[in-house]
Amino acid sequence: MYPGNKRKKLWREEKERLLKMTLEERRKEYLREYVALKDIPTWMEEMRSKSESDGENAKEDVQGKRSLSEKVSLYRGDITLLEVDAIVNAGVIVELEYHGH
């Protein structure tokens, strides 16, 4: 067996093992702290929070933007700590993190 084939087989076995695990079982295997996605507010939640702290009406600020603003979150921090299956195109994330600051 070629070394590449052996690595591919080991990768598939590990993938199957992870897919069978519950979230809690996976978390026991983490080597460091993590940031759960449920802990990152959506853009809508951020705008509501800011509007409430500024004493404004949040509904007026987000009319017509509801569907996107409820799905998108902005995260500023170490993206390697996010509890996600994969990070794709981290350069865009880093650029967004520092854009305009």
Descriptive overview:
It comes from Callipepla squamata (Scaled quail). This is Macro domain-containing protein. InterPro entries: Macro_dom-like. Residues 47-66 are annotated as: Disordered. This protein has a domain at 1-30. 53% of the residues lie in helices and 0% in strands. The relative contact order is 0.11. The protein starts with a helix and ends with a helix. The longest helix has 18 residues, at 3-20. It has helices at residues 3-20, 23-28, 43-54, 58-62, 66-69, 90-98. The chain is mainly alpha-helical. The chain is built from 6 helices and no strands.
Give a quick set of tags describing it:
disordered C terminus, Macro domain-containing protein, single chain, 0% strand, mainly alpha, elongated, Macro_dom-like, 53% helix
Produce the secondary structure layout:
Blueprint: H1 3-20, H2 23-28, H3 43-54, H4 58-62, H5 66-69, H6 90-98
